[in-house]
Design brief:
Blueprint (H helix, E strand, L loop, with lengths): L4 E5 L4 E5 L8 E4 L4 E5 L5 E7 L19
Antiparallel strand pairs: 1-2, 2-5, 3-4, 4-5
Length: 70
């Protein structure tokens, strides 16, 4: 089963999303829009991190996940 992990670091003000195992990270690339792309050895994006991300009430932060029809 595929798993997506979403991590919110309130102190660091980052939102990190992994599409696969974080241990596969080989290199990071900053996009210039306060977003860092994490890539595996083949250059495939396996996650991203949004810098300077914050919400007024972290207890109210919700993540919705939908799949597109095949």
């Amino acid at each position: 089963m595929a798993e997506v992990k979403v991590l919110y670091d309130r102190e660091g003000k980052t939102l990190t999303v992994w599409f696969t195992d974080a241990r596969e990270e080989y290199v990071c690339e900053e996009t210039g829009e306060e977003v860092v792309l994490m890539k595996d050895r083949s250059g495939r994006v396996i996650g991203f991190e949004k810098l300077n991300f914050s919400v007024a009430d972290p207890e109210m932060l919700r993540v919705a996940f939908e799949t597109a029809p095949a």
